[in-house]
Amino acid sequence: MSDSAIRPRKEFGKTIAADITHRLREEIIACGLAPGEPLRFDVLRERFGASFTTLREALTALAAEGLVDAQEQRGFRVAPVSRQDLVEVTDARVLIEVELIRRSIERGDDDWEIAVISTLHRLKRIEQRDPEHPLRDPEWKIAHRQFHQALVSACGSATLLAIRAELFDRAERYRHLSANFRPRPRDKAGEHQAIMQAAISRNADLAVQLIEAHIRSTSDNVTKYAGHLLDAE
Amino acid sequence: MSDSAIRPRKEFGKTIAADITHRLREEIIACGLAPGEPLRFDVLRERFGASFTTLREALTALAAEGLVDAQEQRGFRVAPVSRQDLVEVTDARVLIEVELIRRSIERGDDDWEIAVISTLHRLKRIEQRDPEHPLRDPEWKIAHRQFHQALVSACGSATLLAIRAELFDRAERYRHLSANFRPRPRDKAGEHQAIMQAAISRNADLAVQLIEAHIRSTSDNVTKYAGHLLDAE
DNA sequence: ATCGGTATGATTTTCGAAAATATGGTCTGG
DNA sequence: CCAGACCATATTTTCGAAAATCATACCGAT
């Protein structure tokens, strides 16, 4: 029996449910499934090749993360977007990210510095390759996520890191929402570089200031270029 | 056909899964299910009268809340407790609760004041009735939760309130853990009264200071009287 | 005695059928 | 023409059997 004949069903987690959760999450973040769109089991069953109950488990998990909206007895839908929600996510991110940056700068060791520098380096490499549409490049998305993750990774609180990760995902969905309408990306490379330098040189106040501006300007860009999408809901 | 013959299966949510999620959550918080204890489906099936998949959905939701630990392919267990986790939960609570109190004091209207005053009044009534073992009284637990909820309810961020609620639950489990070893409750009534007065008089700095002390002293009490339970894990 | 493999029992995970519930349209009486 | 009851259909929710996976004990070879 050759292995190649067996189609691997679990690319990510060990269980199918965890795998589907991951794939659904990515698709919702990338707006492949539109905000507010009903998630019907027949459709999902065909698209993801899993049974009712397995899909249900995945949707329940994503509902707890705030990416899916569970309407009891009336199924699930992709979590809607709104100006209010964007403001809440942005404010919460600032509150938590600022705290975690401070703690990481306070506690970060050599490994932390290396992680910050190397993830930024990888990010810049990818940006040089295709500077026009970074959000459409899956590799850029991963590298961008990993750089910001590295910045706060030395904070010492798994609890706050988990909360931060959920908020990051919810914010990334808004970035995707506006990506198609944004004329050209602003100078993110420079911002990331400045944040890295402030962090490595242990200048906490500056790093905090740059991170807050980074988060808020991203949010402002969404309002500016995708504001019309936030009212329809 | 008489209604009395039908046993109501859904006391809380509309779906059985939501109901089981709620009951399991309460039981884990009250330490009726011990930290680290394996959650085997056979046992849960008998205890809660639901099928594998329904239980699985409930456990998945609680895993996302941090009350259950999902070990892929090896089932679920009640989330373990540890000094580290207690410190993380406490710090995260302080960070968020402080922010929400400030916002509520800033934004709270008449209804907010009424909610704060009336929930405190109810709490004190219940305390007078049985001042010895408040945590064993389900009514006190509910009233206590509602008072603290009322304090932050005017903050304007459903996102942060949801995060706060999860952290509150995780902290309450630690309180239950130490309840059996604590000699006598400290003067919580006085602390709550002072917090209420600071909030209603819009003294944000004082309210923040009192809330932080309240949260940290609760946590310290757990370490003091249930520290031995935190090392075993 | 130790290691590696393997059979066995226990447990979790997944599936699709069946039950429960919601939705939408039709009919009837006012 | 409208409101409300009723039926038919679409969809979700729940169930227990079946498949997959893990843990353990046993065995034989080195």
TrEMBL record, chains A, B:
Protein name as catalogued: GntR family transcriptional regulator
Q: Does the keyword DNA-binding apply?
A: yes
Instruction: Output the lineage of the source organism.
Output: Bacteria, Pseudomonadati, Pseudomonadota, Alphaproteobacteria, Hyphomicrobiales
Indicate the secretion signal residues.
none
**Single GO molecular function:** DNA-binding transcription factor activity
Which organism was this protein described from?
Bradyrhizobium forestalis
Q: Gene3D superfamilies under this entry?
A: GntR ligand-binding domain-like, Winged helix-like DNA-binding domain superfamily/Winged helix DNA-binding domain
Q: Which UniProt keywords apply?
A: DNA-binding, Transcription, Transcription regulation
One Pfam short name: FCD
Q: Which InterPro entries match?
A: GntR_C, TF_FadR/GntR_C, Tscrpt_reg_HTH_GntR, WH-like_DNA-bd_sf, WH_DNA-bd_sf
Instruction: Give the highest taxon in the source lineage.
Output: Bacteria
PANTHER family per UniProt: HTH-TYPE TRANSCRIPTIONAL REPRESSOR GLAR, TRANSCRIPTIONAL REGULATOR, GNTR FAMILY
Coiled-coil intervals in this record? none
What residues does the HTH gntR-type domain cover? Answer: 14-81
